[in-house]
């Protein structure tokens, strides 16, 4: 099993988590994603049972997609401030 944690500290952590949770559907087999916020710290944990070498790339691509969404969300939220 592989586990990857992403940590983001920001005042809009709850908003970002709720926005990302909408997209948390149809994961590849063996993958789970959990997220929580405590004291403006967003923690996202991606776990996946590795069945073949390409599964590591799947986890990386998922993390890249999440980070891309976070970047877009932060830009949108910053423009509203």
UniProtKB/TrEMBL annotation:
<comment type="similarity">
    <text>Belongs to the CTAG/PCC1 family.</text>
</comment>
<protein>
    <submittedName>
        <fullName>KEOPS complex subunit Pcc1</fullName>
    </submittedName>
</protein>
<dbReference type="InterPro" id="IPR015419">
    <property type="entry name" value="CTAG/Pcc1"/>
</dbReference>
<dbReference type="Pfam" id="PF09341">
    <property type="entry name" value="Pcc1"/>
</dbReference>
């Amino acid at each position: 099993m592989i586990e990857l944690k992403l940590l983001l500290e920001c005042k809009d952590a709850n908003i970002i988590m709720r926005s990302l949770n909408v997209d948390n559907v149809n994961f590849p087999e063996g993958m789970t994603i959990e997220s929580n916020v405590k004291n403006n710290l967003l923690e996202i944990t991606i776990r996946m049972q590795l069945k073949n070498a390409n599964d590591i790339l799947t986890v990386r691509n998922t993390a890249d997609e999440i980070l891309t969404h976070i970047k877009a969300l932060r830009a949108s939220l910053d423009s509203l401030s």
